[in-house]
From TrEMBL:
The chain crosses the membrane at residues 50-74, 86-106, 173-193. This is Slc28a-2. Residues 1-145 form the Concentrative nucleoside transporter C-terminal domain. It comes from Schmidtea mediterranea. One of its GO terms (molecular function) is nucleoside:sodium symporter activity. Keywords: Membrane, Transmembrane, Transmembrane helix.
Length: 199
């Protein structure tokens, strides 16, 4: 829905005043299929999609490298300024988007983590944000599974360290209320779509 929505908004903000270049007469007809059978169509489609898959994978790799580069620079700046907390892109986003996370109804204990995910999705790539969200949800399940026997935990930066028979490190921390988080995100998206529909 992102592409049609942005096209509709762009047509409203900047309407076409000249003759359109994409009239029905200018659009070419789709040529007939050159495939002889279903197997050939599947094989050719798989070969054609390999380039697209490679582009998506390289794009994701570039964004991960860019995030690492920016975090390295911010960490160096934070160390030069003798800051108490490790300065990173996620840390900055967690403060920038905290009010938005709080206003959409996220539990105050999870607002910094959700704001961090908002920043990563907006500025970088949704795949990275979904991967971090998956890690947080998995960490919550591990935390709940061992919480009955382990009473000692320590927070080191964004990570949560559980002490027991072995030292379990939950990278990126945990999301405390996963079900409510998913419900709030769903209803926030519905509300945004409803508001866009009114305009």
């Amino acid at each position: 829905m992102g592409a049609p929505g942005s096209l509709a908004i762009s047509k409203l903000v900047y309407p076409e005043t000249k003759s359109s270049l994409t009239t029905s007469a200018d659009v070419r007809k789709i040529p007939d299929s050159t495939y002889n059978n279903v197997i050939e169509a599947i094989t050719e489609s798989a070969i054609d999609s390999a380039g697209l898959i490679a582009c998506v994978a390289l794009n994701l790799l570039v964004f991960i490298c860019l995030l690492s580069f920016v975090n390295s620079i911010l960490k160096w700046i934070g160390n030069s300024l003798c800051l108490n907390h490790i300065l990173s892109f996620e840390y900055i986003c967690s403060y920038l988007f905290w009010p938005i996370a709080f206003l959409i109804g996220i539990d105050y204990r999870d607002c910094f983590k959700v704001a961090e995910l908002f920043g990563i999705k907006i500025f970088l790539n949704e795949f990275i944000a979904y991967q971090k969200l998956g890690t947080m949800i998995n960490n919550k399940q591990i935390y709940d599974a061992v919480n009955w026997s382990i009473t000692t935990a320590e927070q080191m930066g964004d990570d949560l360290v559980l002490f027991g028979l072995n030292k379990t490190v939950l990278k990126n921390g945990i999301i405390l209320i996963v079900q409510l988080l998913l419900q709030h995100i769903f209803f926030a998206v519905l509300e945004i779509l409803r508001l866009l529909e009114c305009y």
